[in-house]
Specification:
This protein is α/β, with parallel strands linked by helices and 219 residues long. Helix content is 37%, strand content 24%. The protein has six helices and seven strands, in the order H-H-E-E-H-E-E-H-E-H-H-E-E. The protein has a seven-stranded mixed sheet, with helices on both faces. The termini are far apart.
Length: 219
């Protein structure tokens, strides 16, 4: 059973990561990041990036999208705002400090919600998923990319051991796909539409849910 992370631990860890995050994590996460953005571009329209961080993903979007980003870490967002100020990303509309557990956006605001390397780090993943589901439009997608742990064998044992060592760094390597699956099963208007390992090594998994149900009719 995965033990959920404390919000303060995550905020403190990412404040420390901010100055070196792009250099250290950029190359490691590039395949997963690009896969998530490609899936989001296929949906197009208004896109919410949950855990936008330093804006590493900005290069992976284009003018077919309008991107809004949220993150808990002000030091990370400072880096993102510097990227926006360069003028290279006119399709990034705003980034703001916001808790993904309690988003301030109205229901059905976005065509697509993307959470890259986020859902395994938040204090309550199921609540964040439900908030993503609330703010995405009917027919819209929730796209996740993460390392999801091996649920059996030697790899699972190693990851559970590593979890004890990495929690103070704001990491949770022992997060299983079963939690995502259980959340969808409990939500009558959420359907799993894709689950695939990202090449070349399959370290990361892309998972996509659709918000089902009738579209709202304007009156």
């Amino acid at each position: 059973m995965s033990i959920d992370l404390d919000r303060h631990v995550v905020e403190t860890a990412y404040a420390r990561w901010a100055p070196i995050y792009d250099a250290v994590c950029g190359p490691v996460m590039v395949k997963g990041r690009k896969a998530a953005a490609q899936a989001a571009r296929a949906v197009g329209g208004n896109i919410l990036e949950v855990g936008v961080g330093t804006g590493l993903s900005f290069d992976d979007y284009d003018n077919s999208t309008a991107v809004t980003g949220i993150d808990l870490s002000e030091p990370m967002l400072k880096k993102a705002r510097e990227k926006i100020a360069s003028g290279r990303y006119p399709f990034v509309k705003d980034v703001m400090v916001m808790d993904a557990h309690e988003m301030s956006f109205p229901d059905a605001t976005f065509d697509c919600v993307v959470a890259q390397f986020v859902i395994t780090l938040v204090a309550n993943p199921e609540r964040v998923l439900s908030e993503c589901h609330r703010v995405v439009k009917p027919g819209g997608r929730i796209i996740l990319v993460n390392h999801l742990y091996s649920e059996k064998g030697v790899a699972a044992a190693v990851e559970r051991w590593a979890a004890k060592k990495t929690r103070k760094l704001g990491l949770r390597p022992e997060f299983p796909f079963a939690r995502l699956q259980a959340w969808a099963a409990a939500n009558a208007e959420a359907a799993l539409v894709e689950r695939r390992k990202i090449k070349p090594f399959g370290i990361y998994t892309l998972v996509s849910f659709e918000r089902t149900g009738p579209a709202q009719v304007a009156v």
